[in-house]
Here is the input.
Amino acid sequence: MTLSSPLPADDPAAASGSHHGHANHTLTGFVIFLLSESVIFLALFAGYAVFKMSSPVWLPAGVEGLEIREPLLNTVVLVSSSGVAWLAERCLKRQQLVGFRLWWLLTMAMGSFFVYGQAVEWLHLGFGLGDGIFGSTFYVLTGFHGLHVITGILLMGLMLQRSFRPGNYDQGETGVVAVSLFWHFVDVIWIVLFVLIYVWQRS
Amino acid sequence: MSSSVSFDPRVLKTPHPVPGAPDNWKRFFSFNTDAKVIGIQYIATALFYLLVGGVLAMIMRGELITPPADLVDPSVYNGLYTMHGTVMLFLFLFPILNGFNNLLIPPMIGAPDMAFPRLNAAAFWLFPVFGVILMASFLVPGGPSGSGWWAYPPQSIQNPLGHFVNGQFLWILAVALSGISSIMGAINFVTTIIRMRAPGMGWFRLPIFCWTAMAAQTIQLVGLPVLTAGAVLLLFDLSFSTSFYRPEGGGDPMLYQHFFWFYSHPAVYVMVLPVFGIFSELFPVYARKPLFGYKVVAIASFGITVLSLIVWVHHMFYSGTPQWMRNLFMVTTMLIAVPTGIKVFAWIATLWRGKLRLTTAMLFCLGGLVNFIFAGITGVMLATVPVDIHVGNTYFVVGHFHTVIFSTITFGVYAGIYHWFPKFTGRMTYEGLGKLHFALTFVGAQLNFIPMHWAGLMGMPRRVASYDPEFAFANVLASLGAFLLGVAMIPFILNIVSSWARGPKAPPNPWQAIGLEWLLPSPPPAENFEDDVPTVISGPYGYGLNKPLVENEAHYVARALEA
Ligand code: HEM
Ligand SMILES: [Cu+2]
Here is the structure.
């Protein structure tokens, strides 16, 4: 119970909670942040479901439904990018910096593909933000999620740049763990969104 | 459990203050990452807004001293109460309590600073930004929003001016930013308490103030995202033609009420829990007795958190809520009286046969407790569906929540200021001026808020600039009380300013209190204990038990005296 033993930040004991370094409270704080973010999404999902179930007319006039094929491709890409992020993280833990950078870049590319796909979809939809509750919920939900994807890509860029800085290894690793947590979170949110918006089109 | 807790202070080495930041009074105007500086920045800015909100209140009470609307016209009156309510809640109470968190949490748990010092400073600097945004609504065409601090649609999403920037737009922006700032703060406080306690400080050796901070910040983390999301949707409806709350487009204004009250009911506990913490810290000190039922009081805080998050519908009893739902929420609301009652009994038992020292801080605590018991009774009345249907839109409600928000919460804030002032400024306050402040505030609050209950029971509606002459006498009394509260600010400000400038030097532990913060010099150095963090060996309220709080206590006492 004394403070005599010097602890490296990535000591396995640190993870068990018996001792902790800066790395550890960064992650604690980050997890708390994600929990609080999931409350926002939960509130928006609940609102969406209530509207959907209680609205006599759902789709705006002249709109048949949403095309599902491209969004499905997009979903597959985004979900698999979580696996790629995990591969990158594993390389970093094994000190394989080059492998880390390659997998990490691939994750970023897959995220960008998703954003591109969504932008193309938005441009071709036959309704707008002002077209009733369907337009409002659709754009705000997918837009808010898209904002998270873009944030994730930017954060990954930051981590990538950090990996080129000498002597900042430990700190970089905490950041990478946090960012991939964020990325998995964004993916899970997307899966729920995809089911709510695209799969559940007919009531 | 206590053995699993330890903190190595060497891992947190953010330089304090930020390199290049000034070391004199100018540091309070800089981006400083020292939690103590940030705490004082919060408190000073919040007190400024208390004056702003108070001036708005006095204009309203000036209007209400006579039955007709002669001083300001009714639409201006709507703007006044909207701004008054918003300023008092979002620019005074939440920020000032964050100030207390910043000042108290790190020294109380033996940490050098918050877990994320830079995030902390960033969260603070959003506060002047959204303060100015909100104040700007007095200057834009159309004036401030008139739809109350609750901002219900459809009123709040009408934009008769067609301008993009109007009072309502600024209001939503300010509230959303304040939400983001508070979430940043909550992450920081919770992480700090979980991660950075001194060796030996297990959960059941944690001061109650830290327990209540955890409980209150948990509400912020669960509730605020919902309010912030609701406010952003409101902004979209107001300015980008979405239909979330517009029935014409398939939306529903009730959705907003759910979003709003899911947070805004528990928000009361975000404000009152820290005050419960202050009461629990101060009563033992000034009664020289251990806190009665420490563990139960600690756990009751989380009981309040959980219950407060599931009672919001009681604010919607008269907006078309089905009867079964009303009954359900009536019961959950009344359950809150249980953990709250436990705390009240614990305080009374702590005071029982204690040797009371009636310092200014203690007077504010005792006054606050008396007022709170009164407010608790009227609160349970309001939770009862038939009573609420009856008086829900009358001055009875205004009287009730001011008794909570002013006569309890603000009293607790004053108590905290007088109690910890010597610790953080190194100067004693003047007790005479303090007692005058207390006497004026106590009398003013009773004169102000008791007649409001009475007018409400007689049927005076709230949110009106003019009223039936039968309520005139109650309103004259209330207005006199309000002006008295304005006068009470004079000795307070005088006291704070003059004692800080040239009050008597404060010893490290002027009240002979037990707690890690009192083992530090007054004022504490930048990183509190720095590399010399004490090991805690007993609980925080051992008054009269003759047990040291930490290992080698004499060393820390001597160190504090020397500095
Ligand atoms: C910490 C201090 C205070 C807080 C947090 C606070 C908060 C509020 C809030 C939230 C409202 C909105 C009312 C509603 O829901 O109808 C309000 C209204 C009002 N407050 Fe305060 N208040 C404080 C102190 C005062 C004081 C000291 C006075 C008297 C001088 C006062 C006088 C009023 C009046 C006259 C209204 C308008 C009521 C109506 O027309 O319905 N407030 N306050
Ligand atoms: Cu409530």
Chain B touches chain A through 49 residues (CB under 8 Å).
